[in-house]
Design goal:
This protein is an alpha/beta fold and 341 residues long. It has helices spanning 4-10, 27-42, 75-84, 103-108, 138-148, 157-170, 180-192, 196-204, 209-221, 238-243, 254-258, 289-296, 314-334, and strands at 16-21, 46-51, 69-70, 87-91, 112-117, 128-131, 223-226, 231-236, 266-272, 277-283, 300-301, 305-310. The chain folds into two domains: 4-204, inorganic pyrophosphatase (n-terminal core); 209-334, Diaminopimelate Epimerase, Chain A, domain 1, CATH 3.10.310.30. A hairpin with a 4-residue loop joins strand 7 (223-226) and strand 8. It binds manganese (II) ion (MN).
Length: 341
Amino acid sequence: MQNFDQLKDLLASPKRIVITSHANPDGDALGSSLGMYHYLKKQGHRITVIMPTEMPDFLCWMKDFDQVLVYENTRTFSTKIVKEAEIIFALDYNSISRIENMSSLVANSTAYKVMIDHHMYPEDFCQSVLSDTSASSTCQLVYEFIELMGDVNELNVDILNALYVGILTDTGGFRYATSARLFRIVASMLEFGIDNNKLSDLVFNSYTVKSFNLLAHCISDCLEIIEDCNTGIVAVSQADHKRFNIQRGDLEGVVNFILKIQKIRCAVLITERREIVKLSMRSKGDFSVQKICSTYFNGGGHKNASGGAIKKPFKEVIKIFKDVINNEYKDELTKKLMVEL
Ligand SMILES: [Mn+2]
């Protein structure tokens, strides 16, 4: 970790610390933030977690979920806290723009900034950086950070439950982005008494009737399969947003369903927002959606999971995506898969 000793010295005495993560926080964003919160709080620091936007309801059972400030609802108070912070943690994001409405506030802060993240191409806005794209999740990296601090003995159920959530969500329940290194950490967590069955149930069996009906609509009415490119598209219009009263986060996970179809190697969810069209992409194996998102849709992320956004008409964006896939990636997407076990 870059400038680790400097950071360790700073953390040797109680500090005012703010933990931030990306807008539209997911399990890893919230899990890593709350895991770090419980750890640092135990060390005697004054911690506030601030998320740019609303958090997903299905994680409301997490300990101290209700202590997290949502910046868009608490602007004045949160701004004051950020301005008084001595250290700011940036967890699970690689670019200051990912905290949206908080970007300039954090960028202009004189606090010592620490990034812990696993996305590709981290921007240079933090003094201390732990960036590792081979990690399953930021939660895994927070665990490794605590190890690095020599504080394995300080781990407790609150810290580990929070970190387990992000590991579960970012690996899809240990189906991808795993490694021997991750499983060793998970083994230690289980030895500690963390309940995999219970946490998996809380995380994965969490549809509301509304979100389940929305998923059914996406699959039956909005899905288009481009068979000769092994690609699936779900396009959700403004009309769908009105009809189903879609809120931020309601479409979370829809894109992953497309990959459940045999042979599909690239999946995209295209959503028409009021001002902008958003894209969320997933892929399997060596096929990189990161490259497509960064080249054509002002985004990026991971090789197999990326996002982007573009200010163009909805129909046009769908066409751009189809053209890119068809003209540039057809060969790569249809080359014979060698199955070796
Ligand atoms: Mn993550």
